[in-house]
């Protein structure tokens, strides 16, 4: 192959990965940064024979590919699916998960040409990749199999054929929601004979999106019942704490968990890298991007095929630029390192994927777009710039490096954010059993009511019918009174001329976000959106809004139409809005009293009235001006976890110290809670009360920013001890003197002795 | 239901409603005004005689009623109203008279074998609970018209109770099954897909009639789009039939009106919709007749006066192999048209002239247009190529003659 020849010529001093790793271990500068150098041993494969019932043509085709047997987890998944049991398969990247669902589906279609299957992928790119794989496989098997993707890109002319003739329809939850279920009469052949529904990357169906998807699946099962089918669900998931529970919430039935991989694994080195402190007082460390660049460049220069992950589009581009600068032309080929993220053209992406597989592309810098199962073969090394946010993503990104027999390496370079700092100082958090749970709350009325409407549009509801929650009859009755549904002879019919699925996005809770419009240079360009509840703080008029590390000033906030008009500016200050927040506990679901802390979770109403904003200078945080904010009070009814400080926790403390300690602990818990929840810090709200009207004690509220909640509060209630333990560990190992943004918050903002106050509060 | 739950649902529903109101306001969708006091007055079609299915006297103003809250809802979940109109009163000349000709039907948009008689064609129009399609959009009124014994029989199937939809759909499915072909206005895209969906949902059956379908929208566009800009049925009534609608309920308000009827069950609410639908069906028949007449006239040598319409007809004639009629229409389009229409007509017209051996006229025409600088770049290239070909033919002929 000419491409390999060229690479060899370019890299005459080809070194083995083993040698480079030895060099790394000996390098004093790097060694000082490494908080953990973990070597996981190779693992041999475990095989199981093809089940006897599998169609002979399929077995022959697999043998022709050199596959003589299945891995044990594949065989287990096949047997369960064959016995009509729902399955969730949780095994590492590149362990042959696809065959776990492709084989039962192919077998069913080989035996009965009228059988149908529906594959759901969270993104369109994954669907395309899957289509190619399944077509290759079915091409080798001598059976009639038509596989199609059906999404927004499907040409109208092709749709009719897909609806009636497609054996396997590959789509995404959004398309199922707006394009398929409301038109189910066009899909009679699919719904009458639907044997399998495949939910790939199940762990991505969590939070608001997951709660919506769970309801779309309820609608799917309703339609299937109408046409007389009862499909088996085959799910795959990355490693999370509760795959079985998450699958059960989606499938609403029993699920068999298969989590012992039979696939072989090569030896792997995993390194946790902590960039050195450059400003101890502010807790600022050397940029993770630069440290990551140096590691990746060293690997690439030695001919090691490497993938680097960055956390945002901008970081992806920056890292790419930095790396390319290290490999100037003409000494190096121009496409030595490529970028890969959403926003690239599909054809570009396909070319890069091919290049990675055949070895012509030696390095790639990717956003999390390559984290999910796109086939790029296996690389030798992965460099993660920044903790990806969840343990599941971390393993998926690290799993991109690692052939089945060879040695591979993965480096996690921490940024200075609190979660990154926690992870790099406690690598067992990643290496041990995953603590994060994928949570959904399909019965959240804010989510459910919309789907109930869509369900009624699809098929009338019977009076006593249950759609998940026991509240169904109440909702139906109310919608009936409002004339949205029409009740006659015990059934509720859709009676509105609107198409309810149209206005509902699965990916946001309320569709009620404030859109940020950049008017710099006269045009109008949407650059982002913020939650309406958070909008008064972030995008009040004159606010400085940060987007991709650029500064924008809000010129006008059109509250009525939910639009904030901004222009780009260069100023040396930021704005900070004061918010008068009140929390009213509506309902306490559970409470555990403790000697020092009591914990509870329940439903709350948060009201927030923005008052004034301050202009603070960038580095010294001096107050250089202020203004009033004229916006209405915001209300959020949601679920919350709260911790109250009993007298024993603050024996005889002066009031000021209690307040400082409370604020610091609030920051610390708010920063660390996402470690348990697979969410971002901004998915959780924080309210600190020096005297809670409900508990009559100082209290910290961590509440779900989604109206009605997606389950964070209850999970935190159940993991409080572990959360406090993490907080203790993190505080003990933080290098700062008296609080920094990576732990309890800086003393200049919270108050003096914040660190020691918090430490005293939570000491074991 | 606890009060708290109720309040919560109310807040969520209100939020959704406010949001869709914002969307609608920006899209400018009209909303149903409060019902006018004193009921509605609406003109039905000009009926010479009408009767219920079981015979008897005209029940036009009778409504479908029963008591407002329907003691007899079970029997009267759907109903059928029928009236008959004399063909002469509709001014029909072709449609409904002699056996339909395949050539004429092709112009009306039919593919496949033509029905033997006009009696086999069912004209139809539906009223629905929305325009978006999908399984939650109900067809609650199917208006049909067919010819029988020299009369146009107008029938309106109305669904009065959504619980009776299955029976209603079974009845209209049976009615549709009795006909070889159906005719509609934009039914290919709207009415038929919806009917198909209802039939699937209620009966798990398929529609037999939609294989053979005359959709008048396209022929009407060919004849009148250029002249009147729009070819809605409303526009054609005014411009082509010279019979504008007064007191008509706006189509956009029909779904809300029907939902109100389901709630309060006052048959007066439905009357304007029935009148609107009857009017649509009758206009459909009359428009079909005008299209058929234009086709027949063109065939006998009298192409439409309006040049773009003549050109559009010419193209259909060419497709269906009626070269003589096509030639007549091209000629007329070229003679009456402005430079744009002439340019559009010139190339096919030149071919038609060539087929008839009139090469000289074709050459003169193309040379004139080229000299006038007509047409786009591409058109000019094509015209020049054609001209070269025609000149060769002419040279050869002169050589033979010489």
Strands of chain B, total number: 7
Helix and strand succession of chain B? HEEHHEEEHEHEHHHHHHHHH
Q: Report strand % of chain A.
A: 15-25%
Quick check: average pLDDT of chain A? 88
Largest interface comes to:
A-B, 44 and 38 residues
The parts of chain B where pLDDT drops under 50 for at least 5 residues are 28-74
Beta-strand segment tally of chain A: 32
Spatial shape of chain B = elongated
Looking at this protein, list some descriptive labels.
heterodimer; A: 764 residues; alpha/beta; seven-stranded mixed beta sheet; 27 helices; globular; disordered N terminus; B: 402 residues; 7 strands; 51% helix
Q: Would you mind describing this structure in some detail?
A:
- The complex is a heterodimer of chains A (764) and B (402).
- Chain A has 764 residues and is an alpha/beta fold.
- Chain A contains 27 helices and 32 strands.
- In chain A, the strands form seven sheets. Chain A has a seven-stranded mixed β-sheet, sandwiched between helices. Chain A has a seven-stranded parallel β-sheet with strand order 6-7-5-8-9-4-10, sandwiched between helices. In chain A, strands 27, 28, 29, 30, 31 and 32 form a six-stranded antiparallel β-sheet that branches.
- The longest helix of chain A has 21 residues, at 207-227.
- Chain A starts with a helix and ends with a helix.
- Chain B has 402 residues and is α/β, with parallel strands linked by helices.
- Chain B has helices at 3-27, 87-90, 102-107, 165-177, 191-203, 217-228, 233-239, 254-264, 267-299, 307-319, 323-336, 339-355, 359-371, 377-401; strands at 49-50, 78-86, 121-128, 139-148, 151-159, 181-184, 213-215.
- In chain B, β4 (139-148) and β5 (151-159) form a beta hairpin.
- Chain B is elongated, with a radius of gyration of 27 Å.
- Chains A and B meet through α19, α20 and β21 of A and α1, α5 and α8 of B.
């Amino acid at each position: 192959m000419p491409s390999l020849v060229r690479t060899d010529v370019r890299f005459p001093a080809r070194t083995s990965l083993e040698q480079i790793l030895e060099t790394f271990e000996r390098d004093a500068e790097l060694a000082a940064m490494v908080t953990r150098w973990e070597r996981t041993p190779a693992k041999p494969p475990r095989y199981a024979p093809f089940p006897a019932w599998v169609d002979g043509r399929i077995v022959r085709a697999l043998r022709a590919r050199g596959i003589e047997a299945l891995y044990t987890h594949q065989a287990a998944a096949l047997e369960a699916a064959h016995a009509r049991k729902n399955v969730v398969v949780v095994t590492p990247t590149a362990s042959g998960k696809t065959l776990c669902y492709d084989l039962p589906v192919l077998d069913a279609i080989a035996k009965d040409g009228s059988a149908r299957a529906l594959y759901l992928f969270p993104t369109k790119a994954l669907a395309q990749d899957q289509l190619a794989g399944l077509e290759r496989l079915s091409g080798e098997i001598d059976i009639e199999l038509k596989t199609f993707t059906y999404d927004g890109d499907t040409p109208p002319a092709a749709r009719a054929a897909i609806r009636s003739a497609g054996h396997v329809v590959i789509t995404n939850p959004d398309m199922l929601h707006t394009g398929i279920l409301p038109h189910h009469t066009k899909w009679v052949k699919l719904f009458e004979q639907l044997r399998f529904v495949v939910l790939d990357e199940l762990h991505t169906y969590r939070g608001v999106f997951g709660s919506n998807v769970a309801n779309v699946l309820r609608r799917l099962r309703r339609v299937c019942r109408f046409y007389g089918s009862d499909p088996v669900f085959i799910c795959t998931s990355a490693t999370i704490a509760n795959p079985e529970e998450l699958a059960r919430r989606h499938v609403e039935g029993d699920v068999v968990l298969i989590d012992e991989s039979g696939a072989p694994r090569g030896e792997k080195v995993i390194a946790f890298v902590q960039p050195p402190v450059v400003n101890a007082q502010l807790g600022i460390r050397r940029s993770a991007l630069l440290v990551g660049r140096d590691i990746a460049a060293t690997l690439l220069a030695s001919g090691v095929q490497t993938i680097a992950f960055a956390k945002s589009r901008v970081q992806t581009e920056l890292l790419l630029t930095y790396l390319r600068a290290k490999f100037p032309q003409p000494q190096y080929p121009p496409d030595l390192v490529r970028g890969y993220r959403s926003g690239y053209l599909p054809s570009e992406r396909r070319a890069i994927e091919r290049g990675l597989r055949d070895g012509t592309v030696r390095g790639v810098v990717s956003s999390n777009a390559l984290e999910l199962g796109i086939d790029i073969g296996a690389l030798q090394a992965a460099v993660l710039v920044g903790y990806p946010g969840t343990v599941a993503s971390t393993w998926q990104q690290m799993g991109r490096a690692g052939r089945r027999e060879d040695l591979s390496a993965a480096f996690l370079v921490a940024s200075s954010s609190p979660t990154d700092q926690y992870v790099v100082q406690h690598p067992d958090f990643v290496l041990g059993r995953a603590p994060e749970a994928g949570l959904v709350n399909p019965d959240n009325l804010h989510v459910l009511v919309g789907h109930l409407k869509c369900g009624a549009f699809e098929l009338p509801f019977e009076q006593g019918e249950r759609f998940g929650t026991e509240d169904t009859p109440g909702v139906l009755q109310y919608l009936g009174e409002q004339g949205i549904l029409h009740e006659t002879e015990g059934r509720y019919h859709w009676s509105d001329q609107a198409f309810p699925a149209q206005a509902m996005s699965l990916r946001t809770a309320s569709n009620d976000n404030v859109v940020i419009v950049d008017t710099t240079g006269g045009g109008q360009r949407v650059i982002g959106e913020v939650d309406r509840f958070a909008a008064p703080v972030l995008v009040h008029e004159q606010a400085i809004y940060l987007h991709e590390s650029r500064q924008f000033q809000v010129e006008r906030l059109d509250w009525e139409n939910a639009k904030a008009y901004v222009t780009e500016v260069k100023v040396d200050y930021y704005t900070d809005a004061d918010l008068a927040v009140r929390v009213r506990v509506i309902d306490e679901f559970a409470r555990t009293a403790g000697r020092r802390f009591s914990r509870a979770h329940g439903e709350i109403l948060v009201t927030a009235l923005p008052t004034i904003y301050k202009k603070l200078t960038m580095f010294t945080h001096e107050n250089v001006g202020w203004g009033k904010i004229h916006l209405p009070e915001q209300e959020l009814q949601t679920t919350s976890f709260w911790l109250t400080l009993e007298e024993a926790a603050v024996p005889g403390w002066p009031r000021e110290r209690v307040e400082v300690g409370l604020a610091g602990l609030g920051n610390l818990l708010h920063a660390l809670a996402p470690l348990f929840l697979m969410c971002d810090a901004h998915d959780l709200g924080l309210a600190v009360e020096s005297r809670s009207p409900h508990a009559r004690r100082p209290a910290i509220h961590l509440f779900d920013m989604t109206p009605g909640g997606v389950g964070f509060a209850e999970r935190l209630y159940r993991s409080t001890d572990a959360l406090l333990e993490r907080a203790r560990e993190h505080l003990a190992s933080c290098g700062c003197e008296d609080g920094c943004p990576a732990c309890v918050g800086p003393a200049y903002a919270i108050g003096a002795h914040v660190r020691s106050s918090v430490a005293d509060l939570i000491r074991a | 239901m606890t009060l708290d739950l109720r309040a919560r649902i109310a807040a969520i529903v209100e939020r959704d409603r406010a949001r869709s109101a914002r969307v609608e306001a920006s899209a400018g969708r009209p909303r149903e005004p409060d019902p006018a006091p004193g009921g509605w007055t609406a003109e039905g079609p000009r009926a010479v005689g009408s009767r219920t299915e079981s015979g008897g006297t005209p029940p036009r103003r009778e409504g479908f009623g029963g008591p407002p809250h329907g003691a007899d809802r079970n029997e009267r979940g759907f109903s059928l109203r029928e009236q008959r109109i004399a063909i002469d009163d509709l001014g029909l000349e072709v449609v409904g008279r002699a056996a339909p000709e395949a050539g004429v039907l092709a112009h009306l948009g039919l593919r496949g074998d033509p029905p033997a008689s006009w009696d086999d064609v069912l004209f139809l129009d539906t009223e629905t609970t929305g325009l978006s399609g999908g399984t939650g959009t109900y067809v609650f009124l199917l208006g049909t018209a067919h010819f029988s014994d020299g009369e146009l029989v107008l029938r309106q199937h109305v669904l009065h109770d959504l619980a009776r939809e299955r029976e209603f759909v079974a009845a209209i499915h049976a009615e549709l099954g009795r006909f070889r072909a159906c005719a509609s206005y934009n039914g290919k895209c709207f009415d038929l897909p919806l009917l198909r969906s209802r039939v699937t949902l209620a009966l798990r059956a398929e529609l037999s009639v939609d294989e053979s379908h005359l959709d008048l929208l396209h022929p009407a566009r060919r004849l009148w789009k250029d002249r009147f800009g729009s070819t809605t049925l409303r526009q054609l009534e005014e411009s082509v039939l010279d019979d504008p609608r007064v007191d008509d309920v706006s189509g956009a308000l029909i779904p809300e009106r029907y939902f109100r009827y389901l709630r309060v069950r006052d048959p007066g609410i439905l009357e304007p919709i029935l009148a609107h639908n009857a009017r649509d069906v009758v206009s459909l028949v009359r428009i079909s007749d005008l299209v058929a007449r234009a086709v027949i006239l063109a065939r006998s040598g009298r192409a439409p006066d309006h040049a773009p319409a003549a050109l559009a007809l010419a193209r259909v004639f060419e497709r269906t192999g009626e070269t003589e009629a096509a030639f007549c229409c091209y000629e007329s389009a070229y003679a009456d048209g402005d430079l744009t229409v002439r340019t559009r007509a010139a190339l096919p017209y030149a071919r038609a002239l060539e087929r008839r051996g009139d090469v000289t006229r074709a050459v003169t025409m193309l040379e004139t247009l080229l000299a006038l600088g007509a047409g786009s770049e591409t058109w000019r290239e094509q015209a020049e190529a054609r001209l070269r070909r025609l000149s060769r033919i002419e040279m050869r002929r002169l050589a033979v003659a010489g």
